[in-house]
Amino acid sequence: MSEDPVAEVKTRIYEAIDELEPELIDLSMRIHHHPETKFEEYKASEWLAHAAEEAGFAVETGIGGVETAFRAAYRGSEKKPVVAFLAEYDALPKLGHACGHNLIATASLGAALGVQMGMGRVPGTLELIGTPGEEGGGGKVILTAAGVFDDADVAMMFHPSARTILWKRALARRKLFIEFFGKSAHAASHPEKGISALDATLLTFQNINALREHIVDDARIHGIITDGGDAPNIVPDYSASLFYVRALDDDTCDDLLEKVQNCARAAALATGAEVEMDMQGAYRSLRTNMPLAEAFKENLEALGRTFEDVDPTAHIGSTDMGDVSQVTNTIHPYLSIGPEELVGHSTEFAEAAASEEGHRAMIDAAKALAATAADVLLRPGLLESVKSYFD
Q1: Which of 252, 280, 248 is nearest to 172 (CA)?
Q2: In Å, how far are 75, 82, 104, 125, 314 from 57, measured between CA atoms?
């Protein structure tokens, strides 16, 4: 008998995931070939939920008031601890799965089924939570606010990347929609009778550009004009823009958001236009639970993969996983699915998400996530450290 019974359990988990590999790859390719954008993922969510239900998980759809979200739960000998694997499956407009969410979804499914099959009598509860709308929809923000993750002791997922990285920071993000209302007039014969909403929008951009010298290095402000008028000979009575405001921590992000709003208010005052602003969503900063991340690191390295030592604040964006990390113990590691020059949200990345290398990463991620779940369930000291770190 092995000196480490947990190692024996992990071996059985790996064997179960190897057995599931053809099914997981088939499902990954189906999701990849049928890309569905945010909150329209009817096929993907149904396929994933059905696979879990067939394996004995109890499935609840439409959780948190989101039609394409679901929870598949497998109750073992005890209710707690609850280990949640998060599945993303939305695609990008026009680019399809250029962020590899087909791999995320199937890795989390494989991890959940692998633990169930390999462990047998699970001393806790396994959950596969379908989290739609990550690409611009903030699905996890909605689900977090609805309390979907309140009972989870840990929440885990992996993300495809050009590099294998244990953890990175993720920027807090605020999404701000700005509208200006002016007065139309003939731009040639009576321009003095008009109030240009477009001028107010352009001034907002200029005011924001004047801010850039005086913001912290990790902050980001980027925007687009969504409506700039109808014809050159008509003074635009309406103009609109959309901005993302980002920073490493939530307080800094909120302070910067207020400054951006003041830029719009100043533009309204200067032009005489009326301004309305609408906060259309917020992502909180990501808190990685380091004891949980270290457990994942050991498990992935045992499978033959190594992590790169990189600056965790370099080349970062935002994720709705940040909101989950504020309410429970969370990891969000990255596994390489192609060469280092591979860029996310590109056609090349979409191709890599359907490649043999991509599916090798998906299987390794499923095994490492499942093995980390086994550590949480069977090594009480780890869960204590994880919770202590969060507190």
Answers
A1: 248
A2: 8, 14, 19, 10, 39
**C-alpha dihedral sign at 111, 117, 119, 121:** positive
Kindly list the strands in the beta sheet with 58-61, ordered across the sheet, starting from the edge strand earlier in the chain. 58-61, 70-75, 125-130, 82-87, 154-156, 329-331
pTM comes to: 0.90
Contact present, 307 and 161 (Cβ < 8 Å)? no
Q: What is the pLDDT of residues 70-102, one digit of tens each?
A: 999 999 999 999 999 999 999 999 999 999 999
Strands (E), the chain: 58-61, 70-75, 82-87, 125-130, 154-156, 159-161, 172-181, 220-227, 238-247, 274-283, 329-331, 334-336
Band (4; pLDDT cuts 50, 70, 90): confident
Q: Is the Cα torsion angle 322, 298, 165, 256 positive or negative in sign? A: positive
**Residues counted in the chain:** 391
| pLDDT, mean of residues 371-388 | 96
Contacts of 221 (CB under 8 A, 6+ apart): 208, 211, 212, 215, 243, 244, 245, 246, 256, 260
